[in-house]
Write a structure and sequence with these properties.
Length: about 120
C-alpha cells in the first residue's frame, strides 16, 4: 500500500486511499513490510530506484510510524490459523491484532482473519 500510494497506483482503492490521506488518521508500517520489500528487491521481483533506503524514505516523508516486531506478535503466530502462509503477511496480521490497528490490504485472502479483534479494509 505504501508503494502504491507513493506512485499513485490505480490498484489502490479509493476507500483505502481516502483513509491513508486523511491527516486525522495515524499511519503505521510494519518493519516486516520493509523486510519483504528488501527481499523482493534482492530477488528482482520489485523495482524501486534507491532500493530499500528509498522505501524507508517514502515511509518517513509520508508520516508513517514504523512498527518493529515484538515478542507478543511472534507468540500470537502460534495460534494464528493458516488461512494464509506468507510469513510477512502473518506477522503483519498479528501486529495489527496486537496493536488494535485497522489493517489495509489488497490481499483478499487476509479478509479471512477479520474478526472482533481485527478490522480489515481492502
Amino acid at each position: 500500500m505504501v508503494l502504491w500510494l507513493a506512485e499513485n497506483s490505480p490498484k489502490l482503492s479509493n476507500t483505502v486511499k481516502a483513509i491513508i490521506l486523511n491527516e486525522a488518521n495515524e499511519k503505521f508500517v510494519s518493519i516486516a513490510s520493509c523486510w519483504e520489500v528488501s527481499v523482493k528487491l534482492s530477488l528482482n521481483k520489485l523495482e524501486l530506484d534507491g532500493g530499500t533506503q528509498e522505501f524507508f524514505n517514502i515511509i518517513h516523508e509520508n508520516g508513517y510510524n514504523l512498527l518493529h516486531i515484538e515478542k507478543e506478535y511472534l507468540i500470537a503466530l502460534e495460534t494464528l490459523p493458516f488461512h494464509h502462509r506468507d510469513p510477512f503477511d502473518r506477522i503483519i496480521i498479528t501486529t495489527a491484532t496486537s496493536e488494535k490497528l485497522i489493517l489495509l490490504t489488497d490481499d483478499f485472502q487476509l479478509l479471512k482473519y477479520a474478526n472482533d479483534d481485527l478490522q480489515i479494509i481492502s
